Amino acid sequence: MAGVGEGPLGTKLHSSATKVSYPRPTRVKNKAPAPTQITAEQIVREAKERQEETFRAPKQKITDAEELAEYRLKKRKEFEDLIRRVYWNESVWVKYAKWEETQKDFARARSVWERALDYNYRSQSLWLKYAEMEMSHKFVNHARNVWDRAVNLLPRVDQFWYKYIHMEEMMGQVANARAIFERWMQWEPDHNGWNAYIKMETRYKEWARVRHIYERYVQCHPSVKAWVRWAKFEMSLGDVARCRAVYEDAVETMEREVDVDQLYVKFAQFEERVKEPERARAIYKYALDNLPKEKAQEVYKAFTAFEKQYGDRGAIEDVIVGKQRVKYEEEVRANPTSYDSWFDYTRMEEQHGDVEKAREVYERAIANVPPQNEKRYWKRYIFLWINYALFEEIDAQDPERTREVYRECLKLIPHKSFSFSKVWIMASQFEIRQKRLDAARKILGMAIGMHPKEKIFKTYIDMEMQLGNIDRCRTLYEKALELNPFNCFSWVKFAELEKSLAETERTRAIFEIAVGMDQLDQPEILWKAYIDFETEEGDRGRCRALYERLLERTQHVKVWISFAQFELRAMALNNDDDDDETQEPEAAAARRAAAEEEAAAADPEEAEPRRVERARGVYERALRSLKENQPDAKEERVMLLEAWRAFEEGVGGGDDRVAEVEKKMPRRVKRKRPIYTEDGTPAGQEEYYDYIFPEEQGAAPNLKILEAAYKWKRQKTGDE
Description:
- With 720 residues, this protein is mainly α.
- The protein has helices at residues 15-18, 40-49, 65-85, 90-102, 106-119, 124-136, 140-153, 158-170, 174-185, 191-203, 207-220, 224-236, 240-253, 260-273, 277-290, 297-310, 313-334, 339-352, 355-366, 375-395, 399-412, 421-433, 437-450, 454-467, 470-483, 488-500, 504-515, 523-537, 540-553, 557-568, 577-582, 585-602, 608-629, 634-651, 655-664, 699-719; strands at residues 4-6, 12-14, 667-676, 682-692.
- Helix 7 (140-153) runs antiparallel to helix 8, helix 28 runs antiparallel to helix 29 and helix 30 runs antiparallel to helix 33.
- It is elongated.
- 24% of the residues are buried.
């Protein structure tokens, strides 16, 4: 049956009897703000005002012995109950013992202290308060007993020893205090413990005992601090000899310790105070010679200050150089291949003037060979060798060592991978300065055989030219061209050599061989030199033939312009340029006019009208050639037309000639073209200038129509 449950005895119960009902949540009927608002501060203040006072037990007045005994019994019971609960709480024991002390029951107080120490004898505060109680009430023997037990159980607590010794000394028992110190010293305390013992003996002026203690002190703590204290003690007594002996023993003992640099400084400062600057300087130098460089910073600083006060200029410079030397040593130790640091180091040693020291640094520097046989790693390194050789030659003035440096450097360089022309050249120049031409030739010959370079050939040839050995120069040029026949610079220099010797046919033959090569690195230099040579010879036919041969190879616009300028210029003026530069402008112009008239009279082809016609013909040929062979080279055509227009204006051809050239000039227009990224995706458009020549004007409307069609197609594709 729905809604019926079963009772504990099998009876049937209605669901209303088994249903658990919860109280209905109260709803706020009026949500409007109260007329009187109360702040949280006001609530707290009212709660504080209405708080009842805390309960205070009434003061109890004891009037007789019975009440006192009852009070004591009650308090002891409270303390004992509290101890049973929290026996580990130290403050409870202290309060209990101090209460017994206030009751003048010292036996009970001692009992409480002893019970507390049974629970925790490691507590320093318990021992201190226990002993203070005994001392405050002048129970000396009891206090001694407490201190004696404390130092036996906790010998590493220095405060117990200090308090114990202070108590004995205050009572005048110096012997007892000394005995306690001796017991303490067997545990080898720190510096403060030994210092306290020494101060006590010093107060009673027991100097022999103090020295004996210092001997034990420095054996227990062999440190700079201990030795310096001993030396200061001797100095305070005015015994300079004993003080110096202490420092000397300290140096022998502490020689291998970490902080020995501080000892050296203190020793030197002592000698300085007793007016012994030479001894102090010797100590500083001994320290700098024996200390590692990284540990000598403080010594260098103190030595610098000392030399500024007592030394001369040379001594001060020595100190500064020593300081810099430490810095460079750290740098090269951290990075042996830091060649910049080696450069600075060697330069400093050179300036200091110590040849042997500088030589030692150079030897250490060149020992750090680059790890890889790549020229970029060797470029800085090789200058160490060069500087070393120059140092040996100029500063040390040792030619044999200089020669040995160059020899070892050339042996070290891996010539199969790369070489350095500078080293070969400097080695040969050194031998020339030593008047050993055979050795210089041998070095340069080895350089050509092992790693021939243009610089080496140039140096070798210049040397032979200065010596007047023309045959050797020709042999060297032939060797250079045999090894590198594509080097136009070598061909030109070889031809200039023959030209300087007035060997015209040999010069022309060299040029012919050179221009006949299929491949050249800079053919424009070679052709220009050949044309200039023929121009200086005054043979227009040969020059014109050279231009024609050059135009068969290249149709460059600059060649056409140069050809036209050549045809315009009188051959008689080609050799007078240098003279014209040294004369006044009017005199030079008159001289050129006279030379032109003389040349025209000798050869009608050299008359100005004939030269102008030939130049104009070259311009016309050039324009035709560019139109036919290079139709897209519009900028070159513009350059040619501008040169042509300047030519017509310069020769006075008349307005008709200039206007004719002007008609050929193009119209400059701005256009746009698409640009693409490396992967071919469009990246927008860019503006550029284009030239439309008169003969292209008819095709321009069709181009505009074609562009409009392309634009319409792009728009159509974008809409779709």
